[in-house]
Amino acid sequence: MSLFSLIFQSDTYLCMAFPVPTRQDAYIVDFIPLASMDTVHHMLLFGCQTPVSTNSFWDCGSVQGTCEDEAAIMYAWARNAPPTKLPKDVGFKVGRSSGMSYFVLQIHYGDISAFKGEQPFIAGIYLLMSVDTVILPGQRVTDADVACDYTSYPIYPFAFRTHTHRLGKVVSGYRIRDGKWTLIGRQSPQLPQAFYPANKQVTVKYGDTLAARCVFTGEGKTSKTYIGGTSDDEMCNFYIMYYMESRHAIPYMNCMEMGSEELFQHIPPEANVPINVSPSHMNSVMHLGQSTGTATSNINMKLFQVSAWPQSSLQLGQVSGLALDSDSNLVIFHRGDHHWGADSFNNQARYQQRSLGPIQQSAILVVDPSKGSILKASGRNMFFLPHGITADKENNYWVTDVALHQVLKVSSDGKDKTLMALGEAFIPGSDNNHFCQPTDVAVDTESGNIFVSDGYCNARIIKFSADGKYLSEWGSSDRRRRIPFHIPHSLVLLPDKKEICVADRENGRIQCFIAETGEFVKEIKKDEFGGEVFAISYSPTGDGLIFAVNGESLSRPVPIRGFVIDYSTKDILDTFSPNKKEFKMPHDIAETRDGSVFVGDASSKSVYKFTTEKLHHSVKKAGIEVQELEEMDAVVQTKVKQDTSKTAAIQEKQTVVQKTQPQLEADKERKSPAKLNKGERVLPVIITTLLLIPLVVVISIGVFISWRKKSMYENTHGNQHEVKSEPSSVRGILGKIRGKAVGSLNLGNFFPSHKGYSRQGFDQLSTEGSDQERNDEDSSDSENEEYSALPPPQSSS
After folding, report:
1. Where are the NHL repeats (predicted)?
2. Which of the residues are catalytic?
3. pTM of the entire structure?
4. How far is CA 255 from the centre of its chain?
């Protein structure tokens, strides 16, 4: 209700009328004033049949008054009086037979300064809406993505609302700034579609992008579903209620642009997780992944290996640690040519192989998570036996080295500079200044506090300040815990819960603690772990997901695999492992914002990539197509060898395969073990073309010579030799042509007769690109030397 049209003076009396239900009798049993004596001198509540004005409010301090008929005073308030509650079973009768059809509230304002001028902020609505989504029948997941660049003055979202019809599973809205996605709100549209509080930390300014995703399912449908206004159609709406400065106020804005695939590749995985709501829970509310009342979130997740990752060999040593930097790139920590063996340490945990020197290769590799290509490398001649790694918000690396018994903060600028060292090099210990084979490190992005799992000897977690000052520890010396740690092997911080969890390896459990105090929160221990938990990672999706890997157990043999665990319920939602090979010693695990999971295996010296079920299903149909295309590809290559006259048709088919390959690659790698890459399919065509060109030239030369000789022969001898179909000279030439070109044309012997051509390389075209038959002088190890494991240097002894 706006009061700005009134011309306030001192001691202003304002009245407003409210209708009362008249179909039945009603009773007033409480009076709760919502006022302060700072602005209101007193209030009076009247009951009457007809107010003097039908306006929403009026100045009732003049002759207008309150009611046309007799006004009955029902309540009076002044000077911050407390609420008035009537005795039990007592109430003021209003409504049908009471003679009171209206309430009239009279307010006497003592201080009117609050009503001078305009509101400093004005509210508005921003609507993101999809208009062209088509939901296919039977398709499990269809995404409707909307995104627009924001080009106005700052807005401050304070509430959000989602809306779809029956097929909607979850709707999420985000602000994107500098590539980082920040959640505004996330909700199941099958729950009450009210406005719910938005993330209070979000503001939107010029240059930001506003984006929303609606997740639909077509299961159970027999026809396509379109965006529309009827109950048989669907809608995808994400409303943002905001405020902005009144001088720039815009009451309504909208966005109906389809979001690009490139942009939405980086949407947080939570946006893809449906929120299943049972009918009994329809009146409950779920907000930002957290449930209230009795609502439950059923997270469906299935992980599958991406066999095509990495696209080229990384040539790693024992992979001991994985992390993600602030750019969402994968960071791999490996041991190069060093190995942890039975003779690496004595019984005092002192490293016995210092004579080998530090690892000469780049022990830290930053890798593109989508392709597996190496972006940068560092960490040469710094480490002896790497173990755990994490990256802070400045992209510095925090690592542990079990041989050095140290925790090191290392720069990521390629200069291999140690910025901080905790512990004494090669000296194990159990006091505040020493470690004994520390295993992992975690850094709180807000406080900068450092947590170290220490480790193989001490079985404790130590907390340090951002500048390396010892703060506290807990673990084996904590008498409140009945079973002490037995190799706390991996750490992960839960920023949204202010907790830190540890993979207690030999106890086969995950334990979580309050990061500030070290107070125990919960334990997750499953028979499926088999008594070993090597590493853990965390995602805030839903109410939190923990990703874990177990290890080989002699006492309780179980499959070695990865686990997806619901933090809240402790339920195992999924297990995963490589398609063909098996995990040998999965040593660390990391999860990216797009839902991909990486596992580093120390024994097989490999890193495996897994993606969610949604990606799997989105290319399933394409996967069938790629198998058909592969069969066609095989036929094409056979025909190349059998009939070189069909080169044009072959090239056309090859083009079809190449056009579909990029979008089908992920699923194809999973389903087709004998995959031919793009280059291998094109190569036969190139070979065939190169073979045909000289063949046609040589045959043409031969025919021309034959014709010339024949003409000369006929001119000299007349027609006496007409019966000869082929002069001896032509037979000789064509015989050579047949022997060389048709049998096995050697381009290496053909081109040297032409100036400017070199024989080198042409003889090898018949091998169809086998890397094993390249000339030694053409090969180079310069790219491999930096990353490959070198043989151990000979001991001076």
Report:
1. 378-413, 429-467, 570-613
2. 41-42, 106, 108, 163, 165, 235
3. 0.48
4. 24
